[in-house]
Design brief:
Chain lengths: 259, 664
């Protein structure tokens, strides 16, 4: 299995672990992530404005390169995934946006959302299969109680992301079971961490992340996992808790014995 | 050549204010075949009709054109007047000079010109009119009511009281419907069972009413006055005629794991059960999904303990056929599945319940004997949060819910909130709402009592999320008036889930060829003026199957429905509308296009002998229209590729003549 891979800026700077362990695990599980040679910033925040296209262009470039390589596009950072998938949906469903983007880019073959965008977790679930991961685990994390933190970007908007049930998701819990640990049942797993508000109003982010971390701790978690560098930052810096927060890829690497 | 009279009405100034009526009468008097033309202030008045009758006599008129208001208003009046002079009613045509001309035009010249053109079109049509005779069909004096909830019971009782036989078909083992599950009813707070169960007994004891419980409608054929229905009597594995309802089998049944539907699954019942103490008919039913004897052939305890020998493990479904003059749909509703709203935690947090479940938790005959206890740990809740509009009033983007207001939730939530505060004053009660809608007699007063006397906290805003937080539930919500986010730690959350038509309504609607809207509510013949009739003749609507309703409204509609049914059954013969489709057998090629588009099932095909060339006989498949079922919609005349179908009174020739006259 070979996929085009879009790491994104954060995974090259603050979120190196998410990327590094992700690649190691892919190797261990037998699929190849081919980094797109010419990727640019995804746009960072999904641009909802209907009247401008500039913020969507870099995402479209990544999608087009993948299409031309005849592959599917895998992402790892929740935020990049959200932006690229939403832009792809725009190209597929909004004729006006597609027309203007194609006119601007002047591609040989116009792009209309043909590329399939997958999150790394979807590859684990739908392509590798959690049962096969279970079989590949060398150091099962038996006895560990892991709280799966989804945040908002992986799941919403549900109709576009089509990742899991946005209110009652199960993919991360199934992942935790696959690596031999026990998922914690908790309510705040798909609440917002505070996101970019942290830049402007730290107290808001502290309030949001605080609620999340408190809920994870009070339900007996020993670790919180996430797929989002921003969530990780907020929960660690603004969560007001000593509970460790790590990327899901790090735990997977630990279980597969490649850490 | 017809001898046509033209009568132009002023309608006071309604028509005459914009149309030069004298000029219209004058212009039309020169049309071919017109032997008399006049105008009058009020054509529909007694003296206006007299004028028409005299003209028919004096000028030996064979056709009439009235230039007046819409035919919906006074066509019947003028037809009657013509008939009184011995002229066939269908020789009268109306040119609509009010709704189609004077009310929508301002310029007198323009309006007058249009009025003359419409008059000409009507004259052209009358030239081709032929006298039509309305046929008659007999009436079976028995009604079928589908559904045994309060709507069906009330309709059946009213029809039976008028002296007609009624059958109630109910799919569950007992009649009573949703109302039987309710605790108290708003706004009077009388106990639902206390007012419903006597009616159930009345229905059971009425000599004119037959109840087919645990039965479903299988097929329906026929038309108004002459329906034939097949009813499937599902096997109860208990002989209804022998069972005394003593209940000993239900006590002795060793299989106690079946969820009790009547208590919304909060407790268990046996495989053999009687849904509740006042069930009608009060006979036991064996649930084949749980019965050990039926599943494995081992047990048979109920058969041994039954003194009446009523248990029959070999019972089979039975199909009976009955004839009816009229059919009533009273198929009722169900709350939607609250699980689709994952954010409210229903299905994952045991202490999030629906309003119907709360009814059982507060009912003296319910699983907690009327003491309000949380499902998770049977503790008394101290903070209760109600969420309104769960699945109601949804925008297009929310496919999980319904676009309409479920209408009953505001009032029952006020009732729940009030009853909880009344019984347990130490409990804090919050109600989150979008709007509080309480129109109805004594309804708003009731809601205000909940707020003002009982101190229920009404908060405008919606709940965004409910999560388990230890033993409690954390409710995240917005207070739109204060503009702030709220976090409430609640012990019990109650969801006022939207109501939707029962799942069986769609298939029953198809059997009855009764039209439905996109939400599967039955459509009424006219939303204002014929609210209890389906557009299909002989099918009537009772209760929530037509749209959300509370109990008083359901009962009034049920009685109105009964009155309409009695109106049909009271007649010995029904007059049919003569403006029906008919097929020219010589042109028909038997393609079935008309049968496919007919919404009333009025068209059937027969193999008929025709004389061929050289004295041979040909057998061809041709359409034939049942005039008693045909409603004269004309869909078949458009669909017919060979032009064999035509609508009497509105033939293709007549319509083309009108078009020609307009385009001349």
């Amino acid at each position: 299995m070979k996929f085009s891979y879009y790491p994104g800026c954060t995974l090259k700077t603050k979120g190196k672990d998410l990327d590094r362990y992700g690649r190691l695990c892919a190797e261990a599980l037998g699929f190849t992530l081919q980094e797109l040679p010419d990727w640019q910033c995804c746009g960072a925040v999904y641009p909802m404005a209907k009247d401008e296209i500039a913020t969507k262009l870099s995402a479209v470039r990544a999608l087009v390169s993948t299409r031309d390589a005849g592959e599917e596009l895998v992402t790892l950072c929740s935020a990049c995934h959200n932006v690229i998938k939403q832009v792809n949906n725009d190209m597929k469903t909004d004729a006006d946006i597609a027309l203007r983007v194609n006119n601007y880019l002047g591609l040989e073959t116009p792009y209309h959302g043909e590329t399939n965008v997958l999150h790394y977790l979807e590859v684990l679930r739908d392509r590798v299969g959690f049962d096969n991961i279970k079989a590949a685990v060398k150091n099962p994390l038996t006895g560990r109680k892991i709280a799966a933190y989804y945040g908002c970007l992986l799941l919403r908007p549900g109709k576009v992301m089509q990742f899991d049930d946005p209110e009652n998701p199960t993919i991360l819990e199934d992942f935790i079971r696959a690596i031999g640990a026990q998922p914690v049942a908790w309510g705040m797993r798909n609440e917002c961490c505070g996101g970019y508000v942290a830049v402007e109003d730290k107290t808001q982010a502290q309030k949001r992340s605080g609620i999340v971390m408190e809920d994870a701790a009070s339900n007996g978690a020993d670790t919180v996992i996430t797929a989002c560098p921003l969530c990780l930052y907020n929960l660690q810096k603004n969560g007001g808790s000593t509970l460790p927060v790590v990327y899901f890829t790090e735990l997977l690497a630990e279980a597969l014995g490649v850490k | 050549m017809q001898r046509i009279g033209v009568f132009i009405c002023h309608c006071g100034t309604n028509i005459a204010g914009t149309v030069d009526v004298k000029a219209v009468a004058e212009a039309l008097s020169h049309e071919a075949g017109v032997v008399f033309s006049t105008d009058y202030q009020y054509m529909c008045s007694e003296s206006g009709q007299q004028l028409m009758r005299e003209a028919i006599r004096e000028h030996r008129l064979t056709g009439i054109v009235v230039g007046s208001c819409s035919p919906r208003m006074h066509e019947a009046t003028f037809r009657k007047a013509a008939a009184a002079e011995g002229l066939n009613s269908y020789m009268v045509e109306i040119a609509n000079l009010r709704e189609h001309v004077s009310w929508i035009h301002k310029d007198m010249k323009e309006a007058t010109e249009k009025a003359i053109i419409l008059g000409r079109a009507a004259i052209a049509k009358v030239h081709l009119n032929a006298p039509l005779q309305a046929g008659e069909s007999p009436v079976t004096k028995r009604a079928l009511v589908i559904g045994g909830g309060i709507a069906g019971i009330q309709t059946a009782l009213d029809i039976a009281e008028a002296g007609f036989e009624v059958d109630i078909v109910e799919k569950s083992p007992t009649i009573g419907g949703k109302m039987a599950q309710l605790d108290k009813t708003f706004p009077t707070l009388d106990c639902a069972a206390c007012i419903l169960t006597p009616k159930m007994v009345d229905a059971a004891q009425h000599e004119k009413i037959t109840i087919y419980a645990y039965s479903e409608l299988e097929a329906v054929k026929g038309y108004i006055g002459n329906f034939k229905a097949q009813i499937r009597r599902k096997a109860r594995f208990v002989d209804e005629t022998k069972c005394t309802g003593c209940g000993i089998c239900t006590e002795k049944c060793p299989m106690k794991k079946a969820p009790n539907e009547f208590n919304m699954g909060f407790d268990k019942r046996g495989a053999v059960y009687i849904p509740f103490a006042q069930a009608v008919p009060k006979v036991a039913t064996i649930d084949a999904d749980y019965c050990l004897m039926l599943k494995n052939g081992k047990c048979g305890i109920c058969s041994k303990v039954c003194g009446a020998g009523a248990i029959d493990y070999k019972q089979q479904d039975e199909i009976i056929e009955r004839e009816y003059g009229a059919i009533v749909a009273a198929t009722g509703f169900n709350p939607i599945d609250a699980k689709v709203y994952g954010e409210y935690g229903y299905g994952t947090c045991p202490d999030v319940v629906t309003s119907l479940e709360l009814e059982r938790l507060m009912n003296a005959a319910g699983p907690t004997n009327g003491t309000l206890l949380r499902p998770s740990d049977k503790e008394h809740p101290h903070t209760v949060v109600f969420v309104q509009c769960v699945g109601s009033r949804c925008t297009e983007t929310d496919e999980r819910g319904k676009p309409y207001c479920s209408k009953i939730c505001c009032m029952y939530t006020a009732k729940h909130a009030m009853l909880i505060r009344e019984k347990y004053p130490d409990t804090d009660v919050y109600v989150f709402y979008i709007d509080v809608r309480t129109p109805g007699k004594n309804f708003d007063e009731f809601y205000r009592r909940a707020v003002e006397q009982y101190g229920v906290h009404y908060i405008k805003g919606m709940v965004g999320k409910v999560t388990q937080n230890g033993k409690q539930l954390r409710v995240q919500a917005s207070d739109l008036l204060a503009g702030e986010q709220l976090h409430i730690n609640a012990d019990l959350v109650v969801l006022a889930t939207a109501i939707e038509p029962d799942k069986t309504a769609r298939s029953i609607g198809t059997m009855l060829t009764a039209s439905m809207d996109t939400n599967d509510f039955f459509t009424e013949a006219h939303p204002k003026l014929r609210p209890v009739e389906s557009p299909t003749a002989g099918i009537f609507l009772s209760g929530v199957c037509q749209g959300p309703k509370d109990i008083p409204e359901t009962v009034s509609q049920a009685s109105a429905c009964a009155a309409k049914v009695i109106g049909v059954l009271a007649k010995d013969k029904l007059t049919c509308n003569p403006c029906v489709a008919s097929s020219d057998e010589l042109l028909c090629n038997g393609c079935s296009s008309c049968e496919k588009v007919c919404p009333y099932g009025a068209i059937t095909y027969t193999d008929k002998e025709f004389r061929g060339p050289n004295r041979t006989t040909l057998i061809r498949r041709v359409a034939s229209v049942n005039p008693a079922v045909c409603q004269g919609c004309g869909a078949c005349t458009v669909a017919c590729p060979s032009g064999a179908m035509d609508l009497k009174g509105f033939t293709n020739k007549q319509i083309m003549a009108e078009v020609d006259a307009i385009c001349k």
